[in-house]
Design a protein that fits this description.
Shape: elongated
Number of helices: 4
Structural class: mainly alpha
Number of strands: 0
Distance between the termini: 19 Å
Length: 95
Amino acid sequence: MIRKWCIFASNIKTKVMNRQSISFTQPNDKWLKSQVENKEYSSKSELINDLVRQARKQQCQIDWIKAKIEKAESSGFTQDSKSEILSQSKSLLNE
């Protein structure tokens, strides 16, 4: 469920840009400027927006993993051997 939301949310394109003022430390500002000067990005704003998108995507993936872990932990423990667990996992991949 979370995975589908992440895919959907990452495809949303926003046309309205809100203007904000942000302060950077000198090393961070120097790095941002170098990315723009190296033509990696056309502006600092483009770079910051890309970094925020990456962070949002990463957080979405973390949330998905946490949900999977919580589900697994709540399902209890197994008495299956390592080879049985491996076999079951491989069969799920082949479906």
